[in-house]
Specification:
The protein has 347 residues and is of the alpha/beta class. The structure holds 5'-O-[(R)-(carboxyoxy)(hydroxy)phosphoryl]adenosine and zinc ion (ZN). 5'-O-[(R)-(carboxyoxy)(hydroxy)phosphoryl]adenosine binds next to helix 5 and helix 6.
């Protein structure tokens, strides 16, 4: 790649949970490479991410993944303007692998280091294909670890409006999939099962909290699914093994409809509160077609209608393109990190 001064090429790294990812993105939009080493198979038998296993796999994968991302992009160290790393939030012993790699490259290559908030990066993936962000905007980020509503004035200017008080939306999908004995990871399994089910079959609770609340709660619906499968006193036998495929599909579809309903209604509430012209959707659960379609319909019905910017499906779940893309804005703003940068579980 010829590195004319006009272009900014950033190597982004992501190791916050169970994907080891590296990407080279030019000027925040032009994706030159995106490599993701998924650890799904390693965690599947435990039904969830085991931090120690994730950390060890990141250590094994990080340099091959970086090498592959650089090779696919056709770039060398001299072509890279900065190294970006998602250093929060996430599993500390997973984050530290990427942070250490990024600091090492930044030091060795003499390139600035950029620290990225993983959740803010999820939001950036909704902006990848869009030129004009009409303000005000609200963003819904729905992942395995977080469920957040933000007011967004620019990719770097976010104000938290609400968040989950217990389980994250993706976590609820994962836990309900475990109850229904569907394969890990739960979100895609529930979505697949729900295709053959009736979303109105079971009236699962929709927790809206207070009338004006922009917070979320998903632990109640998870418990409702559990009671449905094991009886109110939890003493009944686990009926899941005896259920027909159709019964499982009905539970999956009804659960998904309830979660989507809450997410869409709360996002509309936030959009009305700030007078939003644009709604952004990102994070792993944003890959869910029922959610994408329901939010699109809600935005179209808004007064005035709102535009929905949604991350391309391949950039909904964890990846490094979103990290490198957001880092471009920090690069332009001169927001660089020190080599003393540490990971942080929260953020
Ligand atoms: O953003 P992400 O890759 O990782 C975190 O930052 O947590 O999100 C992973 C979450 C998991 O809980 C997974 O079950 C969920 O996103 N997910 C889905 C779908 N694809 C992934 N949830 C619902 N429907 C999907 N199609
Ligand atoms: Zn994520």
């Amino acid at each position: 790649m010829s590195n004319s001064q006009k272009h900014v090429a950033i190597l982004g790294l992501e190791t916050s949970c169970d994907e080891t990812a590296a990407a080279v993105v030019v000027d925040g939009r032009e994706v030159r490479s995106s490599v993701v080493a998924s650890q799904t198979d390693l965690h599947a038998k435990y039904g969830g991410v085991v931090p120690e296993i994730a950390s060890r796999a990141h250590i094994e994968n990080i340099y091959p993944v970086i090498k592959e991302a650089m090779a696919q992009a056709g770039v060398g160290r001299d072509d890279i303007n900065a190294v970006a790393i998602a250093n929060q939030p996430g599993l500390t012993i997973a984050l530290v692998v990427g942070v250490t790699a990024a600091k090492t490259l930044s030091f060795m290559w003499g390139k600035p280091l950029i620290a990225i908030n993983h959740l803010h990066a999820h939001l950036q993936s909704a902006l990848l294909g869009e030129a004009e962000l009409e303000l005000p905007a609200v963003a819904l980020i729905v992942s395995g670890g977080h469920t957040c509503l933000y007011e967004c004035d620019s990719p770097l200017d976010l104000t938290l409006l609400g968040a989950t008080t217990d389980d994250a939306a993706g976590e609820a999908f994962d836990k309900v999939a475990t109850i229904l004995k569907l394969p890990y990871p739960g979100g895609p399994s529930i979505e697949k099962a729900a295709r053959n089910g009736d979303p109105k079959a079971i009236d699962f609770p929709r927790s809206m909290l207070g009338r004006d609340s922009l917070d979320f709660s998903f632990s109640g619906i998870k418990t409702a699914v559990l009671y449905h499968c094991r009886g109110q006193d939890m003493k009944g036998d686990d009926r899941v093994d005896a259920m027909t495929e159709r019964e499982i599909a009905d539970i999956a579809a009804s659960f998904q409809a309830a979660v989507v309903d809450v997410l869409v209604k709360k996002t509309r509430r936030a959009a009305e509160k700030v007078g939003a012209r644009t709604v952004l959707l990102g994070g792993g659960v944003a890959a869910n077609t029922a959610l994408r379609e329901a939010l699109q319909a809600s935005c179209e019905k808004g007064r005035p209608p709102r535009r929905l910017f949604v991350a391309p499906k391949r950039y909904c779940t964890d990846n490094a393109v979103m990290v490198a893309s957001l880092a471009y804005h920090k690069y332009l703003a001169g927001q660089f990190a020190e080599l003393t940068l540490e990971p942080s579980a929260t953020g």
